[in-house]
Amino acid sequence: MDYELMMNGNVKIGEKAPDFEAITTYGNVKLADYKGKWLVFFSHPGDFTPVCTTEMIAFANAYPYFQKLNTELLGLSIDSNSSHLAWMYDIYCRTGIVLPFPIIADRSGEIARKYGMIASNISNTETVRNVYIIDEKGTIRVILVYPLNVGRWIPEILRTIEALQIVDCENASTPANWRPGEPVIVPAPKTFPQLQEQLVENEQKNNDFSWYLRFKKANIF
Hints:
Helices cover 35% and strands 19% of the residues. By secondary structure, the chain is of the alpha/beta class. The strands form 3 sheets. A 5-stranded mixed β-sheet has the order 5-4-3-6-7, with helices on one face.
């Protein structure tokens, strides 16, 4: 593998997520273990830090909603497994919340660099707040990157997963500010005969913007 790629990561949307095997707070984990499920793979700068603690609690509280979307959570930082466990225990003692998802102990930073989780212009050791949404086939569908001092908005991650699953099933797109249950966008016509057909349908329904922007109700799953 190219050294620059190995050090800085170069994963892109639409590519297969790089495989790995790692020690976690729930035992050894491989990316292949999540085949058939969606995965939110996210990094955090460090254990026992204020913003990260609030994020872990938020992810734990939202875990049932992720499960309803056939989605699992997997965290990562370069801290040790014993540090992760002590942090989890501290959260439990103070809140009664058990983190129901594994956290990878990436001590060498190999996985973090493979995924581009370390921004060398910010820190050579701390992982920034990256989020990779990986679908049930192991393809990277979304990449989100947050700075060290801005916490993630968990409802947006849930919304994005549901949007991806809806458009996959409906062969459609979602408009700006789309929320679950709202109409989705029908693919625009690619030929003039299709365009004419859309115009006729628009006149009959009288609820579309134009021939190139049409909506339909999505099936709820």
